Amino acid sequence: MTATPDLDASRLASPDLLRSVFRRHAAGVAVITARGAAGPVGFTATSLTSVSAEPPLLSFGISTGSSSWPAVSTATHVGVHILGEHQRELAGTFARSGADRFGAPTAWREGPEGVPLLDDVSAWLVCRVVTRVPAGDHRIVLAEVALGDPTGPGRPLVYHQGRFNALRD
């Protein structure tokens, strides 16, 4: 069965239209961390993208209104953590404004370049920030992978329809 786009139901571009469309787009869930002047910062991101294999580059978006932006705006290195389906609560903690993201029960340690590294994640990377590109009310951060580990536990956590979900076979 083919679904033909209903042009009569179309809406003009708006933040709500973009959010509504992207709620239908399942995305992997990551937490980005950085060392800040007042301590570690971090946020949940679904905008993580592999950019290049040679050199190994990735990108993610961050709102300039985010509480993590001041630290990320000056950080030389960031941590990128791929969350597993067992980490819905952790994803929610790092997504909530005003949450004590690095307090109990969050388990973490200081890693290379002072980057906060979260425990028990499916995979993690420490990346050197290459540039920050203005993009509306966000910045796109390009970062080069320095080191990491892809061997953590669990199946991936995904974000879809405004909720954190597990994959189904």
TrEMBL record:
Pfam families: Flavin_Reduct. GO terms for biological process: pyrimidine nucleobase catabolic process. Keywords: Oxidoreductase. Coiled coil: none annotated. The keyword Oxidoreductase applies. InterPro entries: Flavin_Rdtase-like_dom (IPR002563), NADH-dep_flavin_reductase (IPR050268), Split_barrel_FMN-bd (IPR012349). GO terms for molecular function: FMN binding; riboflavin reductase (NADPH) activity. The keyword Oxidoreductase applies. SMART domains: Flavin_Reduct (SM00903). Residues 22-166 form the Flavin reductase like domain. PANTHER family: FLAVIN REDUCTASE, FMN REDUCTASE (NADH) RUTF. This is Flavin reductase family protein.
